[in-house]
Design goal:
Largest sheet: 5 strands, antiparallel
Distance between the termini: 43 Å
Mean pLDDT: 81
Radius of gyration: 24 Å
Oligomer: single chain
Helix content: 10-25%
Order of helices and strands: HHEEHEEHEEEEE
Structural class: alpha+beta
Number of strands: 9
Strand order of the largest sheet: 2-3-1-9-8
Number of domains: 1
Shape: elongated
């Protein structure tokens, strides 16, 4: 057989192998470890209070991946605390009187493109359902009338609720859609000179889109909520 014929035969065999043994799912969808720290900045003496919209806000969480109960069949897995790379950062934030860490999360997920990317449900912080029972019933009533994605039979009104979505493209893209809840106290003054304080719970929506590189620590800032995120490809 000629040299050309041998090369052609080799090439044909190589193509046959690729057809019979397609790339594995791990090659098609690289896995990533996502680590997220969410924290608030404590109000400093003399700082000016900001005005926020006081409308009731419900985060869009209907199709989000819920990692509360651990791993799922689609490759999203909650990782143990021992998998955290930012434990020292958490410790420094917690030791400072200026900050309060709400949640430190770490999970594994496949790298998914724009068309198939899934949001991950993020919840944590103080539960205000006892302090503000009227707000809890208002949210459940709103869900029953307008939204079917979230379970109506929920008994918590957490400080932080929403989603984070990782989209894989030429770069990694992080989409956040979070609601941060905070009690505020206002004073009502009467004509007779008396005054009365009222405490209410406000919802602050935090939506952001950020392009980032893997293995780099990124900080997403907001007047009420800080977010540190690091995305690491897994072998």
């Amino acid at each position: 057989m000629s040299e050309f014929g041998m090369r052609f035969l080799y090439f044909g065999c190589a193509i046959s192998v690729l057809l019979w043994f397609p790339p594995t799912s791990s090659e098609q969808r690289p896995d990533y470890k996502v680590e997220l720290i969410l924290f608030t900045q404590q109000a400093q003496p003399g700082s000016r209070a900001e005005l926020w919209d006081r409308r009731l806000i419900r985060p869009e969480v209907g199709n989000a991946v819920d990692l509360t109960y651990g791993s799922r069949s689609d490759g999203f897995v909650t990782l143990a605390a021992s998998a955290r790379d930012l434990a020292d950062v958490n410790s420094r934030l917690s030791a400072s009187p200026r900050y309060r860490v709400i949640e430190h999360l770490v999970w594994r997920q496949p790298g998914l493109g724009k068309a198939s990317a899934k949001s991950v449900r993020i919840q944590g912080g103080t539960d205000y359902s006892v302090q503000f029972p009227d707000r809890l019933s208002m949210r459940n009533a709103t869900n029953a009338q307008q939204f079917v994605g979230e379970s109506i039979a929920t008994n918590s009104l957490l400080e932080l609720d929403g989603t984070v979505k990782i989209v894989l493209g030429r770069y990694l893209h992080v989409h956040t859609d979070l609601v941060f809840r905070q009690p505020i106290t206002t004073t009502s003054y009467e004509e007779d000179g008396t005054s009365e304080n009222f405490t209410s719970l406000i919802d602050i929506r935090i939506q952001n889109r950020r392009r980032m590189r893997s293995r780099e620590l990124h900080y997403i800032d907001h007047p009420k909520l800080g977010m540190l995120i690091q995305i690491t490809p897994l072998e």
